[in-house]
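thoughts on these tokens:
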Amino acid sequence: MYGKILVPIDLSHVDTGMKAIKIARKLLDDDGKIILINVVEDVPTYITAELPVGIFDETKDIALAELKKAAKSVGLDADIEVRSGRAAPAILDTAEERKADLIVLASHRPGLADYFLGSTASRVVRHAQCPVFIDR
């Protein structure tokens, strides 16, 4: 199967992320590793001036805690990363840096906005250098 699987988790949809973790576990080699990642979206500069100092560090700390909690709830010993930026490029960069063999990604049903802008899942599928498993 796969030795290193990257599982991006959107913390606003933890239930679909948990399903992706279960899929990844089924596809993982006995001695393989799962990497959980959450991407904290960048905020435009004109907005950051109005936000409390340290809010981004706090947001990253919360994301890290939530990923650890998710992994622990299913007894998973995973590597955990929290990055900032746009989701698709951060996921793709992590997959390349960590030499992932597979990306398991949950996706929502596309709406009209996705057809004009493109969803994170479709961007990851188009640009990933490894196989991508999309769960709907």
